[in-house]
Amino acid sequence: MNAETQRDCPFCAETIQAAARVCPRCRQWLSFRSFRHPVVASCVVVVPMIVFFVVIGLAITRYFERVFNPPPYYTAHLGSLRVLDSRLNWVEKDKETNIYIIGILTNESSIAWRALEFECRFYDSKGVMVDASSTGSYLTIQPNDESAFRVRVAPSRPAADYDSYKLSVSTARNTKTQF
Ligand SMILES: [Zn+2]
Asked: pLDDT tens per residue, the chain (179 residues)?
């Protein structure tokens, strides 16, 4: 055999044909100029496939987001649900003490909201916050309408520590939302 047409495999040192793309002894790929080379195949096929599935996955996520949690979002309408008037009652029943806050809520947006979350901050006589609560409510409030509500809070301190409170709606979902 002519030495010009032969070379040594860089992986196993076996003398092989110079034009060989795969070493016949150790089966190592010696040339990148083939789609059958595992590295080339993964770049040409696997990487675009991963990109494709990521793009499809994002599109599906967006679709479900639009179907199950469609806009408008309350974050774009912050402050449109306002507590017009409220009062706080301490209720002791069966050795359990609860704070009940009842009031009237107004919806100043043109969107019907549901699954409201009330945030309440309680202050002592010096104006220092002593307690806080976040309470979910199933009530639905129609556009430009009013609704009565009641929020129950389990106090974490004796009644004497509570002097004033501030109640607001922290979040809500529009009525088209599924969950
Ligand atoms: Zn070899």
From this structure: 556 789 999 999 999 999 999 999 999 998 888 888 888 888 888 899 999 999 999 999 999 888 888 889 999 999 999 999 999 999 999 999 999 999 999 999 999 999 999 999 999 999 999 999 999 999 999 999 999 999 999 999 999 999 999 999 999 999 988 76
Give domain status of residue 179, yes or no.
Answer: no
Please state the pTM of the whole predicted model.
0.66
Q: How far, in Å, is the centroid of ligand 1 from the Cα of 7?
A: 11
* Parallel/antiparallel/unpaired status of strands 129-137 and 15-17: unpaired
Instruction: Please give the radius of gyration of the chain, using alpha carbons only, rounded to the nearest integer.
Output: 34
CA of 5 to the centre of ligand 1 (A): 16
Provide CB contacts within 8 A for 155, sequence distance 6+.
97, 98, 99, 122, 131, 162
Classify strands 146-153 and 96-107 as parallel, antiparallel or unpaired.
antiparallel
CA of 167 to the centre of ligand 1 (A): 77
Residues 33 and 63 grouped into a single domain: yes
Whether 104 is in a domain gets the answer yes
Q: Which of 18, 50, 68 is the last residue of a domain?
A: 68
Distance 16 CA to ligand 1 centre (A): 8
